Amino acid sequence: MEQAKQTEKTDFSELNATFRIADGVARNDDLDVKSPFLRLGGDGAIDIGKGRIDYTARATVTGTAAGQGGAELAALKGLTVPVKLSGPFEAVDWKVQWSAVAAGALQNKVEDKLKQKIGEKLGASPAEPGASAPKPKDVLKEKLLKGLFK
Hints:
By secondary structure, the protein is of the alpha+beta class.
């Protein structure tokens, strides 16, 4: 296992969360943490009296930059990775919920295919390698505007 270095850090630009505390248990269902490349949400409970946590954090990569794990992060862009945190504070256990990761990856792939098919139906030509394909919404808007001003 590799130790974190003191010089490594993640800068966050925003953090919002509300907690409801009753009977020594803090409950949260709206964690919202933002950084330039990452969004973090979550929900669960922290039992302050018993020193235990039962929380699910959901990390989503939103962007990448060269020199900051660019290629590795690009493969995860838009994919949400839920991590279940549970157990006593002094020995918190964590598990990636891989079934949710796989379901999210499949959904992203299906959405990409649907967008491609819709683009083809709207008359968008296939993009050249390395070029970004026009968005179906943009193609539709262009066709509608051309129809209005004939």
